[in-house]
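Hey, resending since the last one bounced:
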Amino acid sequence: MYEPSQPPSERQQTDQSLRLERERADRALDDELSVADEAADAVTSRARARADALLAAARTRIDQTSTVHQSTDALKTSRAIEDHMVQRERVTADYVLRVERSAHVTLLSQERQATDDHLSHERQRADRAVATRDDFMGIVSHDLLTLLNVMVGVSSLIEEEVAQENHVERVVAHARRVQRAGARMRRLVGDLVDVASIEAGLLAVTRAVGHPADVVTEAVEAFQAQASGSGISLMAQIAPAAPPVAFDAARILQVLSNLLSNAIKFTPAQGTVVVRLEHVDDNVVCCVSDSGGGIPDDKLEAVFDRFVQLTKNDRRGVGLGLFISKCIVQGHGGRIWAENSMDGGSTFCFTLPVYTDALAAEGA
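The structure tokens again:
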């Protein structure tokens, strides 16, 4: 039975296009080099022929006009030595020319290999990015579908419960489940919108002068119930008289929410999470420390990349929170980093520049 051949994939089409372009470039380069070499060789040959003709004419004139009688053997020997020296110089010049041309070809080959290596590296990076993106989209799709199913299922339960007596408490509990699922969906969609804004260079950061201590307090209070429910002690340590900062309070609250959410997720029961705020040099530094299992050393920087998770099958997030947090902090002129504690656990810190006249001049 005849089966039609499958159309080439986009990758195969790209490879074929690259091969054709390379072949055309190689042919054009070979033709150009051949023409240049032939032209150079022709010029050299004409110059040598001209030099030989001039030398022969000079010798003839000398033979006709010279009054000094020199033996034929001596004259032949002298001129043979001259011819040998000229020939040796020409052989040396030809050898140097061949070496230079060979070096040129070798250099072109090395440049070609470097280009191939760069293309291969970029292709591998692109393949990893595509695979990661596909994994991410699978996770997000699964999570959104799961949350939608929860909302639909709970809505059906509410419909059944309202027909029963004494249903108020059960309906309220179901409504709260719907609210939690909706809030989770809103966070997922919000992260997607933020990533799209970041890639388009449109992430909004509106700074105003204020005290970050207020945002730290708000974030800790917001996560206190979640931490207590997981058996985790959550506390804030705010240094007195922290200077004012030009910052977007809503965005920094988003950063703290991401850091606290991660810290609580990765801290076991009876553990602790501490948020510290202090003034260091020209910055206000905020750190979130936990007593969890820490971060592998090779992931301390990578955790801030898009879609990165500590383990491949970790379903406790989609790997966007820290990436978005990094972009928000950088949008404030600060930096963010992670480190492991000596006694276990990890610490995430970020800086915000202290408000100064220079910042005021920039319109912060």
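DSSP finds seven helices and seven strands in the chain.

Sorry for the duplicate.
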